[in-house]
Amino acid sequence: MPPISEVLPFVVALAAAGVLAGLLAGMFGIGGGAILVPIFFHVFGILGVPEEVRMHLALGTSLAIIVPTSIRSFLAHRQRGAVDTQLLKGWIVAVPLGALLAAAIAAEASSTELRLIFAFIALALAFRMIFNRASWQLGKDLPRNPFKFLVGVGIGVLSGLMGIGGGVLNNTFMTLYGRLIHQAVATSSGVGVLISLPGLIGYIIAGWGAAGLPPFSTGYISWLAVALLIPITLYMAPLGARLAHAMSKRQLEVGFGIFLITVSLQFFLTVFV
């Protein structure tokens, strides 16, 4: 282990990430994983976690933190009556199934493959948000099953492979089918609950007995990082929800898009530089 003087700056960085993650959870209906995963990846590297398991540990730990954050964010949005509860009920099997499949895929994927998956999906979603036009719609209402069920599975898989709460994907899906961004954001917080709980279990099983994991880890979950960040993200999520309802649709889209581009480029750098 490196000395305290070297670890302390990264503890501070984790705390700052927790503040941003909590705000993002409320503002965009996500669990904050999009910012936690890249920071975890670098912090675990400084602490000597082997590269072979570092990205896996970052993804699993992010999902663990998303559990309470998503629940808190969902409750805050539900109080405002903006959540599409019918959609969530229809996905109560599909989304968790996808999250479990993601953990199984991650167990077989390399660290580089997982970073590239994260970066490509984030970049695609960023351009969708920034250059969004009202004409970019596939319909005026959400599609029926089985297509809707398959979309739920897909959101669970892709989100589980990115260590995120599914907000970025669900926001895109709902707005493409005529739903307002504020309702999409509110509903996405509930999607985060459906992803993070089974995702947490899946990453514990996937990483059980893996070599090189840091102390106080269970599978691909670092409980030390979880204990540090959960209180911060829980405190900040309701504030983020209030900010979301005070912003315009376009402000939410552009702000989120810029954020995703930044995260995506950062991961490409870790792979190619």
TrEMBL record:
The keyword Nucleotide-binding does not apply. It is a multi-pass membrane protein. The keyword Nucleotide-binding does not apply. It is found in: Cell membrane; Membrane. InterPro entries: TM_pro_TauE-like (IPR002781). It comes from the Bacteria. Its main location: membrane. Keywords: Cell membrane, Membrane, Transmembrane, Transmembrane helix. It holds the Pfam family TauE. The chain crosses the membrane at residues 7-24, 30-49, 56-75, 87-107, 114-131, 151-173, 185-208, 220-240, 252-272. Belongs to the 4-toluene sulfonate uptake permease (TSUP) (TC 2.A.102) family. This is Probable membrane transporter protein. It comes from Pseudorhizobium tarimense.
